[in-house]
């Protein structure tokens, strides 16, 4: 960590835990009587409260999207390349709210937090949540912050699904939705990948039916395998080839089953690191929320009819090498928006990094994103 922070950083930030006593009824029929959300904010809310931007995170994301928690941090927040002074989401103009969703494992109420009725962690008793549930909780958060209408709701991947759900469920409470590297619903292949990941976790002997907290253990192997499967789908064949090729760790075959290729070593490292920082029950919840997301489900599978509820403007971005959420899925969404007479801007960005390309700044991605957000700032007087 340098002695001083970069000039385009939001600087040192402190997470806030907001407690809510308002009961929240979930799509599964269960109700959370009380719950917490952890958020970070960057920039300043203007007097008219018109310049607020909500950041929705992807599967393994959290509230720490930008800046540093201390001068000892080696890395900034997960989307620091896009949030800060002079960046696409310019904190000289916007008040940015980044959230850790319900069911998460970074402070918001979820499986690893204490159930107030029992005094023990919720574990597998934490209800299954949906994208709609997250959006409903974010509405309560907006009310707490005094934000009647977001200048924009922004998200990549699973975060983009939340931005899309906002536009349909609360059309009068956002001016713009930015949907990046996302999809209106998962393909069968995507659901299959999620099921393999969940089975890796639930088959771990240390999973104990999700009650591993009570056994003072963690299903590390299962979570590591789940992350390895997921990580493969986030990268493209070209990016993995460029980064690793078929390089051997020791330049010779050992005729065994340890990690001999560089890509094997990389995947094991990523899986092991993830298993130490993420909760297995939360992983199950997040992947199921991905599976369930389908805004056309309640409109007889008519996506045009679902999008007709929206009133905001849209920016939809896809990436050429993203085979998890392909450009074709974004184009399906854009075509439905056009048919529903929504105002939408769309760009497919040439990038070799697969699904993870939405986290990596490239000139065209940065230019398109920045130009759109500058227009949002002008429109809301930010």
Automatic annotation (TrEMBL):
Record pathway = Amino-acid biosynthesis; L-methionine biosynthesis via de novo pathway; O-succinyl-L-homoserine from L-homoserine: step 1/1
Span of domain AB hydrolase-1: 51-359
Q: Where does substrate bind?
A: 227, 356
Enumerate the UniProt keywords alphabetically: Acyltransferase, Amino-acid biosynthesis, Cytoplasm, Methionine biosynthesis, Transferase
InterPro entries named among the record's database cross-references: AB_hydrolase_1 (IPR000073), AB_hydrolase_fold (IPR029058), HAT_MetX-like (IPR008220)
What EC number(s) has UniProt assigned to this enzyme? 2.3.1.46
Protein name (record): Homoserine O-succinyltransferase
Source organism per UniProt: Marinobacter zhanjiangensis
